[in-house]
Amino acid sequence: MLNSAIDPSAKIDSSVKIGPFCVIGSNVEIGPNCILHSHVVIKGPAKISEGNIFYQFSTIGEDTPDKKYAGEETTLEIGKKNIFREGVTVHRGTVQDKSKTVIGDENLFMAFSHIAHDCIVGNQNVFANNAALAGHVEVGNNVTLAGYTLVHQFCKLGDLSFTGLNTLITMDVPAFVKVAANPARPIGLNTIGMQRNNFDTDSVNLVKKAYRIIYRKGYSLDDAIKRLHALNKDNNPALITFISSIERSERGLLR
C-alpha cells in the first residue's frame, strides 16, 4: 500500500493486495483476494466481490459525466473474478435509471474499454481494447466485443453475440448473432461460440433455421416471431434464448 490513499470508511478484506499510488474512496467494499496493481482509482459507493484484478490506471466507480447527474448517491456492483486491464473506466449509475451499474462474474475488460452509467453486464464476456458501452446498455453472457466496438445508449446484446473490429451498434443484437461494420449489420451466427459453450449440433442447426427466418426470408418482425415459436416444438433451450432476446428488444432489432 505504498503511497496509496485509502478512505477510513472503506471496507477492505485483509487478503486484498494494494500496489503503490492507488486511491480508494469512501463507501467502497472490496472482497477477498482482489489485486490492485498500481495507480488504481476506486470510488464509491461500490461493492466489489472476491478475486477481481485491477491493472494500472483503471478508474472504477467514478461519477458519470452525464449532464443529468447532479451528485446523487448511486452505486456500482462488481461480481467475482473480473479482470480490468490498463485504463479501463467504469461509472456508477444515475437516479433516472436504477441508480446502479452492475458487472457480473469472470469478465475480461481489455485496455481502455469503458462501461458507462447504468449498464448491466453479465458473465464471462470479453471486451477488447477500446470497446465502449454508452449509458443504459445491457450485455448478456459470453458476449465478445472486438476492439473499438461502440454501443449506443439503451441497446441490448444477447448471450453469445459477437462483434467485429470497429463495429458501431445502434440497435439491439439477438443472442448468438455476429455483427460487424459501421453501421453494424448481421453477418451470421456465432456457431464457434455456441460449440465452445456445449450447444449440441441439433441446437446449432435449429438456431440457424431461426436466423434465416429473422434475417433471410423477408418477413415482418411480428410474422417472423410467430414462425420462430412454431419452429420451437420441443422447447429447445438455445432457441428459447434466441427468441427471448428478440422479444426483449425495446430499442429495435438490428436487421
Topology:
Blueprint: E1 5-6, E2 11-12, E3 17-18, E4 23-24, E5 28-30, E6 35-36, E7 41-42, E8 46-48, E9 53-54, E10 59-62, E11 75-78, E12 83-84, E13 89-91, E14 100-103, E15 108-109, E16 114-115, E17 120-121, E18 126-127, E19 132-133, E20 138-139, E21 144-145, E22 150-151, E23 156-157, E24 162-163, E25 168-169, E26 177-180, E27 185-189, H1 191-196, H2 201-215, H3 221-231, H4 237-247
Parallel strand pairs: 1-4, 2-5, 3-6, 4-7, 5-8, 6-9, 7-10, 8-11, 9-12, 10-13, 11-14, 12-15, 13-16, 14-17, 15-18, 16-19, 17-20, 18-21, 19-22, 20-23, 22-25, 24-26
Antiparallel strand pairs: 26-27
Give an account of the 3D structure.
The chain has 255 residues and is α/β, with parallel strands linked by helices. The chain has two domains: 5-192, UDP N-Acetylglucosamine Acyltransferase, domain 1 (3 Solenoid), CATH 2.160.10; 199-247. The chain contains four helices and 27 strands. Helix 2 (201-215) packs antiparallel against helix 3 (221-231) and helix 2 (201-215) runs parallel beside helix 4 (237-247). The relative contact order is 0.08.
